């Protein structure tokens, strides 16, 4: 009897140890590998933002006419473009240099806020002056009541980007998730209040109000807790040399990517009108979540490469291996559910935008390889190569969009993104061992 019990007990033992070992390995991976831990948090932030953002836009499309939705999204695109330009790529600079800045981190952050706020405000004012030429459909922004809010909102968005870089750079990526949650929830609640009060500008007011709340909370955490703790932990750090040269060169590449992301909605608005821009904008919001997965893992790569430059190739390959399979699954899933997902926003969205959403989703796969190549080049300080990749992407996307949109409509925009990403990713794939050698090969 005892032997039978022992035998039967031994037969059931493997399942429990296997589960325990699996849990321990997963816990160890997330606890001791900052690359994946911080990358996962940033990706979770993007997914959460996309999910809550989808709820927001479902409500917006239910309560407002497509023309209003399209025009409001064009304004938000202009703010994000100008804020992205005005932040001078200092978010990425902070990701790259805050880990080693030590007791100089607070000064580096405050200087980044001052420079980005000044440039973003000047850029917003210049845009308002040029609206009749570059975006006639946004002429209402020039009114004396709206213009100041547009400028302040652009400055706030520039700071929003910079603080994300600072939080990531001091290894507080969990607060990037927190601030985005605050932004999404407040934005949705404010939209509901604006719709209840029948405010025609409710989409823009809710977005601006949520931005103000998120900035206040995140900067309290950043300046009162995260930065002081980082300075104490890295008291021997120093201000990085040649910071301005690095920032200026890297900024030129970031401008190219920003232009590609944010000029396209203005092209759609001016070419196809506000309603079709609403259809495209919702598709881009959904597909951009896939782009963010690659960007967020790349941000974690930059931070960890700053701590240990010898591991750049290892980190880059780990990002590809870790992100590629789940991203492929997400793309395939989106290809299948695209019409049903868009129908949540209305039957016209599913009818008009299913094709462009599928094309944009496919473009996220080659974008992963391109994004890793750019971040590896930046970690190695091979900025000319990183800038060239981003400039080429921008040129291809804008030229192809202008050529294809008259013939294929919204599907032409999706095709432009897919063709541009593939044109860059294919040669990068063929030359992978040269720019991202395996760690074993590097150590020889």
TrEMBL record:
What are the transmembrane regions? 35-59, 71-91, 112-134, 140-162, 174-198, 204-223, 327-350, 356-376, 383-405, 417-436
Q: What Gene Ontology cellular component terms go with this record?
A: plasma membrane
Q: How does it sit in the membrane?
A: Multi-pass membrane protein
Asked if Hydrolase is a keyword of the record, the answer is: no
Note whether Repeat occurs among the keywords: no
Question: Where in or outside the cell is it found?
Answer: Cell membrane
Q: What is this protein called?
A: Polysaccharide biosynthesis protein C-terminal domain-containing protein
Under the heading PANTHER family, the entry gives: O-ANTIGEN TRANSPORTER-RELATED, PST FAMILY PREDICTED COLANIC ACID TRANSPORTER
Give UniProt keywords alphabetically.
Cell membrane, Membrane, Transmembrane, Transmembrane helix
